[in-house]
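User: Show me a protein chain along with its predicted structure.
Assistant: Here is one chain, sequence first, then structure tokens.
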Amino acid sequence: MRFNFAAGAVATALLVGNVYADEAQKVLADEGSSPADPKASSPVTPDMPTFTPTKLKAPFLEQFTDDWEKRWKPSHAKKDTKGSEEEWTYNGEWSVEEPIVYKGMEGDKGLVVKTAAAHHAISAKFPKKIDPKGKTLVVQYEVKLQNGLECGGAYLKLLRDNKALHQEEFTNASPYVIMFGPDKCGHTNKVHFIFNHKNPKTGEYEEKHLNAAPTARIVKTTELYTLIVHPNNTFIIQQNGEEVKTGSLLEDFTPTVNPPAEIDDPKDTKPDDWVDESRIADPEAKKPEDWDEDAPFEIVDEEATMPEDWLVDEPLTIPDPEAQKPEDWDDEEDGDWIPPTVPNPKCDDVSGCGPWTKPMKKNPDYKGKWSAPLIDNPAYKGVWAPRKIKNPDYFEDKTPANFEPMGAVSHISSRNRKFSFNTNYI
């Protein structure tokens, strides 16, 4: 119930903003198309609602009020570029300000990416770590792509809780638990849901990517993204309160959480006498005595007759009567001038011109190359496959929804500016 109320409160604020923006645009359009009112000294602007921070309590709830800088710290670390000589830092500027497009209410501010073509990274630590084991996890935030989105991400990451988590040194390579939100570049346009899963045997982490991720809405109005993960390993993704994807952590991610219990035996090889062919030529079949492999595919149609309107004495082409020898043509140097040819106009409305020959037709006696019919191979053993053995790396995690404890939320952006993030609710 707590989540339902929270989602409703935030969604209502969003709805009011969108409705107001639509009404404002309509008013401006009406003013532009209606005769001027001599009594009106200035355009009429509807009163905007005023933002009031919610009193809702949650493990983490950020509405970017005046004290936001106490929680959010930008990173100035150098990006991890292993194997590359390139070296740069997260030097993009962040700001908290009201939107510049489709403003919904007075005083409603968001975290804005300010610097064009720069790398931005910022994070906020939770008051205390969030451990979702055995609980429903809700991740919800607003995105306003005020300048559109050509290539980049507007997702957030929930960082793994550890003592080495320093906000000033946070990078794209910092360990995270969940990555969620829109990402678009080229033909890729999706709402990411990726989680890091810990292998209980090796202790190593592996990213699990959602299959068939929903499409992100790339618009300049505010979009509300919600992720809900239940203890029974089911999840729901919502956009603006509407379900766009549901599924299971155990069934809808690649690589799968649990490896197969059995694998192919790498030492097993196919026997030399294994027969792979399921069908073979019938060894007892014989070519019929009347089968003529040399008979041509086509023969002359001896029954054909020349059409009555065929003009045997007329050529298909004639010298162009309108062509003239160029003035600079020298017969001694260039040879005799021959005018170009054009289609004979006398042939346009008849069956043809010039010598007539009988056409070809399909040979009724043609049979082609003879081959024996196929029969089932009595020696066929089936499709060979190596025998199965127990997977030495097998494990079964029945509760992948028991994510690792999380210590902070972060936003990373590059190339694009004027993104606005608002109302982070976890």
